Amino acid sequence: MKRLAFLFCAMVAVATAGGQAYLTDPRYGDTPAQRQKNAVALSLFMEECNARSYDRALGHLWELTGEAPRISQNIYLLGANIYRSKIAAAATSDERDRLLDALMSLYDRRAAAFADLPADRGKGYILSLKARDYYACRPDDVPGNLRLFDDALTQWGMAADPDFANICMKIVTDWYAADKVTPDVVLAGYDRLAPLFEAPGVETTGDDRKRAEARKTFDALLAGSGAADCDNLERLFKPRVDASPDDRELMGRVFAAMTRAGCRSDFYFALAERYYTLAPSSPVALALGAAFEQRKDYARALKYLGEAVAGEKDPVVISSLQVRIAANLLEEGKAREAARAARAAMEANPENGYGPLMLAQACAAGASACSGFDRHSVSWLVVDLLTEARSRLMADADAVSAIDRQVASFSRGFPGREECFFRGVRDGDQITVGCGWITGRTTVREGGSK
Questions:
Q1: Pair 154, 67 in one domain
Q2: Residues 108, 130: one domain?
Q3: Contact present, 261 and 230 (Cβ < 8 Å)
Q4: Over pLDDT 70: what percentage of the chain?
Q5: Is the pLDDT confidence value at 18 over 90?
Q6: Domain's final residue, options 93, 114, 135
Q7: C-alpha 312, offset from chain centre
Q8: Residue 199: is its pLDDT beyond 70?
Q9: pLDDT value, residue 175
Q10: Residue 92 DSSP label
């Protein structure tokens, strides 16, 4: 009697709701009779859910998903919640498996019914929810999980939510840490997911800032996995790079991964220079310059650092690049050119203490071309520059300590009182030092015995 009363109330509620608008709504069925029947089933489903009569609710759920699958997304959401609760409470593994299979079927019906919705609610998104629930129940089923991840990503395409991509990558790296997959699986996952962070998705998946932040997480997952060593990266990507040397997206992805891993093989250098040819930019040029620095190929390091400067607009970055250029020029024994780069660094960013520090090194190196008093007087300029550098690098204790040692060393090279007397200068005088290309105003400081 209670069930009959319940059914009667549901029919009355349906008959009076919204002026029976559902009778013309195709989501409820093909004919008025079907729509009437499915509207009652929907009302009963909601009432059973509210009453926590979940087994009865599931009976109506499957009836609705079979006869009126587009009637409402809410029935799928509520149904998934019921199955998750029942799976958590399952007494046996067989019962748990049966319930999980039912939940997976429910997602399949939902994906088929709403495949035409926008990307953030459509088939790819729904299959991503399916994949997450499957992993929550069967985290050790590697092949099954990989298949479901791939299904979701394939349906979602380039509009896939980067957060879901990071969930997939996190799971794969966790598997690797637990010795459940090989490095190839991690790297294949990276290769599969990385394009999602490079191409803009649809508006509903988030803005560029969200995508950039997600990319940082994605890269950190790969770097922290331990799977992305240079040998593994080269073994995975070299055949593809050799086969598609003009694929700019592929080259960029491999270049980024190998640069983060600190690779310096012949393959890396060939790849990097090829990628720079396809997509020249200041960041790529800088990475190449740094790589050639480590290889002590200073000529090629200077080539790419110079191109990085040419493509850069930020004066702070330009200043840092000029400092590196000066250091490379000193390694090549080109003190005069190094001084020119150091001055460019100081001009671009006067607060960069490494500019005067590099200029001091360049002047010290260039002074060897002079002799006598002129050579010794350069020490005054060098100490001036070191003192200026020190004042801007107070936060860098190591730099300050190194500068103090250099100041002490160069101070021992100050011309003595007698030499200053013969040059017509005395302690405290302002003079212009002239030692070839090294010139500048400084203060006389007598060295040795006074």
A1: no
A2: no
A3: yes
A4: 93
A5: no
A6: 114
A7: 21
A8: no
A9: 96
A10: S
Q: How many CB atoms are located within 10 Å of the residue 332 CB? A: 13
* Euclidean distance between CA atoms 34 and 438, whole angstroms: 96
Do the domain assignments include residue 202? yes
Residue 432 pairs with which residues in a beta bridge? Answer: 441
161 and 93 in a common domain:
no
Q: 173: Cβ–Cβ under 8 A, 6 or more apart, which residues?
A: 186, 221, 222, 224, 225, 227
- Within 8 A by CB and 6+ apart from 327, the residues are 338, 358
| pLDDT tens digits, 318-372 | 999 999 999 999 999 999 999 999 999 999 999 999 999 999 999 999 998 888 8
Tell me: do 93 and 143 sit in the same domain: no
Output the pLDDT for position 100.
97
Per-position b or e across 201-222, b if 16+ CB within 10 A of its CB: beeebbeeeebeebbeebbebb
Residues 102 and 130 in one domain: no
Q: What is the pLDDT of residue 417?
A: 87
Whether the CB-CB separation of 420 and 383 falls below 8 Å is answered with: no
Structure tokens at 351: 């607060």
104 and 129 fall within a common domain? no
| Each residue's pLDDT tens digit, 275-316 | 999 999 999 999 999 999 999 999 999 999 999 999 999 999
* For residue 15, pLDDT beyond 50: no
Domain that holds residue 31: 1-114
Residues 6+ apart with CB under 8 A from 68: 27, 28, 29, 34, 35, 38, 41, 42
Number of domains present in the structure of the chain: 2
Question: Within 10 A of 422 (CB to CB), how many other CB atoms are there?
Answer: 10
266 domain-assigned: no
Residues 93 and 146 placed together within one structural domain of the fold: no
Paired with 440 in beta bridges are: 433
Burial of 311 (0-12, 13-18, 19+ CB in 10 A): middle
Residue 365, domain member (yes or no): no
Residue appearing with tokens 């071309």: 369
Are the C-beta atoms of 280 and 308 separated by less than 8 Å? no
> 84 and 124: one domain?
no
Question: Among residues 166, 201, 228, which one ends one of the domains?
Answer: 228
Q: Is residue 143 part of a domain?
A: yes
Question: Residue range 126-136: average pLDDT?
Answer: 97
